[in-house]
Structures are given as C-alpha cells and as structure tokens.
Amino acid sequence: MHELGYAVEIIRTLEDFMEENHLTEIHEVTLTVGEATGIVPRFMQECWPAAIEDSDKIKDCKLVINWVESIGECHNCETQFPIAKCKRVCPKCGCEDYDTKTGYEFEITEIKGH
Ligand SMILES: [Zn+2]
After folding, report:
1. C-alpha 29 to ligand 1 mean position (Å)
2. Which domains can be identified in the chain, with CATH numbers?
3. What is the chain's pLDDT, residue by residue, as a tens digit (114 residues)?
4. In angstroms, what is the span from residue 89 Cα to ligand 1's centroid?
5. How far is the CA of 90 from the centre of ligand 1 (A)?
6. Which pTM value belongs to this model?
7. Measured between alpha carbons, how far is 49 from 34 in angstroms, rounded to an integer?
C-alpha cells in the first residue's frame, strides 16, 4: 500500500505551507488524484489518520479527494474515451494507440486553515 507514503508527503507539504504562511491550523485539504496514479482514494482515506499522528503541527485535518478518471484520445480517430472502462482500446475504431489526456494528476488543490 503506497498510499501511506503519499499521505506522509502531503502532510509534509502542508507543514511547510503552514510555516510559510504563518498558519496555526489546517482543518481541510483537497487533493486532486488521477486514476493513472494508481492511488486508491479509499486506501488514502484509511491511512490519513496514521500520517497525521506523526505530525506535530497538524492535528485534525479532513481529507477531501477529487478523483479524476483517465481519459485517452485515440491517435487514429481522435475520439476521447475513459481508458479503464474501454480496456485501453478506442471504442469507435478499435485502435490501441492513444494519448493519455487526464489521470496523472496528484496535487493539492485547496487548503482551508487559518
Ligand atoms: Zn479511434
């Protein structure tokens, strides 16, 4: 389960953010996570409290995850399609060559604190 590693990374980033912006508390953070990262939001939520436990600065912070589906664009006919649902094959022409348009996102998109 690599989600704990990611959760710890996020906590560190938040701690730095608090320091830089002179915040005393962060109570909610929103992450945007793409399907292609392999991160499972449910696992991320499960290991979040453990990651917080190791932090001196962050005590009670809610984690919100915006999950982004992987979308591919076919090289042949330019159709855009959900990669996992279509089993990596363009549903229109059957081509297996595509560009991944979305799904690699992994970023903090919102921090609520004071
Ligand atoms: Zn196609």
Report:
1. 38
2. 3-69+100-113 (3.30.2320.50)
3. 689 999 999 999 999 999 999 999 999 999 999 999 999 999 999 999 999 998 999 989 999 999 999 999 999 999 999 999 999 999 999 999 999 999 999 999 999 999
4. 8
5. 5
6. 0.85
7. 22
